[in-house]
Amino acid sequence: MTINDIMNILEEFAPLNFAEDFDNVGLLIGNATTEVTGVLVTLDTLENVVDEAIAKKCNLIVSFHPIIFGGLKKITGKNYVERVVIKAIKNDIAIYANHTALDNARHGVNAKICEVLGLSNTKILLPQKSTFKKLTTYVPVENSDDVKQALFTAGAGEIGNYSNCSFSVEGKGSYKANSNANPTKGTIGETHTEQEIMLTCIMTKNKTTAVVNALLDSHPYEEVAYDIQTLDNTNPYIGMGMIGELANALPEQQFLSDLKLKMKTPIVRHSKFLNRPIKKVAVLGGSGSFAISAAKEAGADVFITADLKYHQFYEAENQIVLADIGHFETEQFTKNLLVDYLTKKIPNFAVHLSESITNPINYF
């Protein structure tokens, strides 16, 4: 398998199109055509992780966090980022990161937290906007079923739990072919009228290229008329954070005690208790202060995230308990999630869970 093959498998799970604009995801170091000897999955790519990859004969590191985030103007080894880049290149090791693409994935980082906490009836806390696109095209009536099927096979027409969704209106299309054309129907130099279907369907933005290629391959016309619009609709299956429910409500202190055990954290920083049971739980792995308002509006009893600042705890405003369990702690199961996924997709391939500890924070 090549690096590109592995990337395609990973992007079925967490399409890079769904990553946040500020992020730096994808293949950061290496050539996509390189044959893969083994994959090492990690939360962060540090020097000891590169050493582990070398020892395990893995020439591809799949890392949740991107080691290269901003631009590198010099690579002299003066800091840990530059030293990782140098060591990886020297040893022909590629590095791929999916970060917020996996944060936003339906079964990604936050779904894993919900699983660990035993939450049910889960849904996205902050659904992403502008992930849907609408395709409109015009097809001769006799070819419309074949074109529709080609679009559906490429991934168009999927809405939640429904597939093969489309809308069609019949009408008359017209065109006049010039002397350089090779029309499927009609005569050069004469205006031709054809009974056509105006076909409309939606797709997520990560499938745009495949759907357009399917349209061009299946359409009978030499020149295919179509347009694509980005929709403002939110996508209930893609986005940051999740919210779900416990099977049984718990007192606040008992909930936090259970939280420490399940999320393997020695300490929980939290806003003041409200003396009411915890039933509805919102989660957001990593730095999630931007979702405090969304958690309150969703009626969550507690919001679990990381990196909350002093004044952000005031934003609880006696409506919710805010629980900061640590950045690493919220994302620690991410590498297990990726290893499980890759092992299922390529069971006979060498996929390793990194044993390196990359949490930079220690507790005393």
Concise synopsis of the structure shown:
It is built from 11 helices and 15 strands. The two termini are about 45 Å apart.
List keywords for this structure.
364 residues; Udp-n-acetylmuramoylalanyl-d-glutamate--2,6- Diaminopimelate Ligase, Chain: A, domain 1; Alpha-Beta Plaits; five-stranded mixed sheet; GTP cyclohydrolase 1 type 2 homolog; globular; 28% helix; alpha/beta; single chain; six-stranded mixed sheet
Task: Describe this entry's structure for a reader.
By secondary structure, the protein is α/β, with parallel strands linked by helices. The chain folds into three domains: 3-102 and 333-353, NIF3 (NGG1p interacting factor 3)-like (Udp-n-acetylmuramoylalanyl-d-glutamate--2,6- Diaminopimelate Ligase, Chain: A, domain 1, 3-Layer(aba) Sandwich), CATH 3.40.1390; 106-127 and 239-325, 3-Layer(aba) Sandwich (Udp-n-acetylmuramoylalanyl-d-glutamate--2,6- Diaminopimelate Ligase, Chain: A, domain 1); 131-231, 2-Layer Sandwich (Alpha-Beta Plaits). Helix content is 28%, strand content 29%. The chain contains eleven helices and 15 strands. It has helices at residues 3-13, 47-55, 80-90, 99-104, 109-117, 144-153, 208-218, 252-262, 292-297, 327-331, 334-345; strands at residues 26-29, 39-42, 60-63, 94-97, 120-129, 132-140, 167-176, 191-204, 226-230, 234-250, 269-270, 278-287, 302-306, 321-324, 351-353. The strands form three sheets. A six-stranded mixed β-sheet has the order 5-10-12-13-14-11. A five-stranded mixed β-sheet has the order 1-4-3-2-15, sandwiched between helices. Strands 7-8-6-9 form a four-stranded antiparallel β-sheet. Helix 6 runs antiparallel to helix 7. It is globular. Belongs to the GTP cyclohydrolase I type 2/NIF3 family. It comes from Maribacter sedimenticola.
